[in-house]
Amino acid sequence: MASKQRLLVTGGAGFIGSAFVRHRLRSHPGSPIRVLDALTYAGDARHLAGLDGEVELVVGDVAERSHVEAAMDGCSGVVHFAAESHVDRSLRDKDPFERTNVEGTSVLLQAASKAEVSRFLLVSTDEVYGDVSGKTRKSLETDPPHPGNPYAASKARAEALVLEAAANGMDTCITRGANTCGPRQYPEKVVPLFVTNALLGLNLPVYGAGTARRDWLHVDDHCSGIDRVFEHGKAGEVYNLGSRTATSTMELAQIILNCVGKTNSEIVHVADRPGHDLLYAVDPSRAESLGWSPLHDPVSAIADTVRWYVKHEDWWRQARASEHFQTHLRAWYIERQA
Length: 338
Ligand SMILES: NC(=O)c1ccc[n+]([C@@H]2O[C@H](COP(=O)([O-])OP(=O)(O)OC[C@H]3O[C@@H](n4cnc5c(N)ncnc54)[C@H](O)[C@@H]3O)[C@@H](O)[C@H]2O)c1
Description:
Layout: E1 7-10, H1 15-27, E2 33-37, E3 55-59, H2 65-72, E4 77-80, H3 87-92, H4 95-115, E5 119-125, H5 150-167, E6 172-177, E7 180-181, H6 190-199, E8 204-207, E9 213-214, E10 217-218, H7 219-232, E11 237-241, E12 247-248, H8 249-260, E13 267-270, H9 285-288, H10 298-311, H11 313-321, H12 323-332
Parallel strand pairs: 1-2, 1-4, 2-3, 4-5, 5-6, 6-11, 7-10, 8-13
Antiparallel strand pairs: 9-12
């Protein structure tokens, strides 16, 4: 990929998207970036603070053709992060997931095709494989999708649209990243929820027995993998990004309590998420063959995350004070204590 051409990054004001923008400015200095982001509850223009000269933020919706066509103008590549990203929310209301994750991807692909971009990368998820706890090996890119919740199903449908575009001549790649932690993640997700609860001295609410296992990636490792695939991936190909580890929710809670240090917080159990997938575990060999590997293990990834939340208390306190966050907390944790 030519590095000096303008890149369109959708969802670039969100958790992983904003980390990717900073990563990309380091890996391709002087290469202009335009971010298209609707600034939903999970997006925040402050995530791009200090990058004004290098990054243009366009506030707009990926499912709105006029917004997308205007944002695509003059761009030669697309990295598509924008999504509704929380499984719990998808279990209560699928509509925003259908609109942003599926329709938004369709609108973007059509605009990208018209603009003849040189590459379109969809940031997808290992959740499309569904629960692999009964399997004897890690998921390979050739395994069929078997999504177990509406969020994962919407991402699988977005992937299908990208694969169809590839079959019809577009240069595309898809990454299937593992669960990701790091700075600037909205505190509804399990790692920042547990970290901020521990910092506040509140209990850590674990779904069910806490035996569900995830392959935790540090956000910087996820972003270096996406960048590596964007630059060196084979057209039409899918790439798993994972750390070859499996950490249970109980272990995660314990690591977080250890990192936060002295706290009165305890682990408590709440009713499990319906259809909770017990294990995601990808084989990242294909991405590794491009020269990518994660630098963090789960403990160092979580320790780095805790350090950021300790330093940015104003940000997460403000997010937690919002009605949006509080409603979610009540519905999924407070009213479901075992
Ligand atoms: N967080 C994870 O563990 C993880 C793991 C693998 C893959 N992913 C994928 O990575 C991508 C980013 O995830 P994240 O955790 O950073 O999510 P996030 O919820 O933190 O950020 C999503 C961003 O998309 C924006 N957005 C939402 N709807 C939009 C719309 N209609 N138009 C334009 N912008 C819109 C939001 O404002 C926000 O900035 C998603 O596609 C997700 O499926 C996430």
